[in-house]
Design brief:
Layout: H1 10-40, H2 46-79, H3 86-89, H4 99-109, H5 115-145, H6 151-159, H7 167-201, H8 204-229
Helix pairs in contact: 1-2, 1-8, 2-7, 2-8, 4-7, 4-8, 5-7
InterPro entries: Seed_Dev/Stress_Resp_Reg, TGA_domain
Pfam families: DOG1
Protein name: DOG1 domain-containing protein
């Protein structure tokens, strides 16, 4: 996808991220194996659990950092990702998972929360909902300010009109690109910060269960998408 005003290398950039994502998925599966394995041991040292948790969180951080670099080059591609299946893309919120979903996953996967932990998680849930609402409003303002059709439809139209349009359209696209970059950056920051705050609230063995559930769900959605409609979203 190469909207007017971007360089002709969008396909190369998308291909580069696709290659990164394929390798990231392989590592993702390996981390799931580690997470499952450590839960089957009779006793696991706390330092070993903390080390695994740190490595899994760094794994997710790597994805966000790589996606951020892609967004700076071609934010339109981030909103119509070729590395996800159509099924996966249907569940996205501002180019990724909705932060509040991670909190629901905690309550589903961790059954031994203390009263203090539950209260802290409930407060975090409310704070996260407010932040999500702010980002939703920001994205809506971007669309409304340009009097555009729905965002993805506009992007698809621009992709079919690569070399058309003049200075005014180029300026409008530059404004849109900058606004979308800021919204995506805010959403990814909220995603990662929410996950890190959850990790601070949970004990190591609870974190392992939470991260196992999150990692499994990601791969289950992936597999369902592949079964339903092929490898890539067109």
């Amino acid at each position: 996808m190469t909207p007017a005003g971007t360089s002709g290398g969008s396909n190369d950039r998308g291909g580069s991220f696709n290659a990164f994502f394929e390798g990231w998925l392989v590592r993702h599966e390996h981390y799931l194996e580690e997470l499952l394995s450590v839960q089957q041991r009779q006793e696991s040292q706390e330092r070993d659990l903390k080390d695994l948790i740190s490595r899994v969180l760094s794994h997710y951080q790597q994805y966000f950092e790589e996606k951020s670099r892609l967004a700076q080059r071609d934010v339109f591609l981030v909103f119509s990702p070729t590395w996800f299946t159509s099924f996966e893309s249907a569940s996205l919120w501002i180019s990724g998972f909705k932060p509040g979903f991670a909190l629901r996953l905690v309550f589903d996967s961790v059954q031994d929360l203390s009263q203090d932990q539950s209260e802290r998680l409930r407060r975090l849930t409310e704070e996260t909902r407010l932040e999500e609402r702010v980002l939703n409003d920001e994205l809506a303002r971007v669309q409304e300010s340009l009097a555009a059709p729905p965002l993805l439809e506009m992007v698809r139209k621009r992709a079919r009109r690569v070399n058309e349009g003049g200075v005014e359209e180029a300026a409008a696209l530059a404004t849109l690109r900058k606004a979308l970059e800021e919204v995506v950056a805010g959403a990814d920051l909220l995603r990662m910060n929410t996950t890190l705050k959850v990790a601070e609230i949970l004990k190591p063995e609870q974190n392992v269960r939470f991260l196992t559930a999150a990692t499994q769900l990601f791969l289950e959605l992936r597999n369902l998408g592949l079964q339903q409609g092929g490898k890539r979203k067109e």
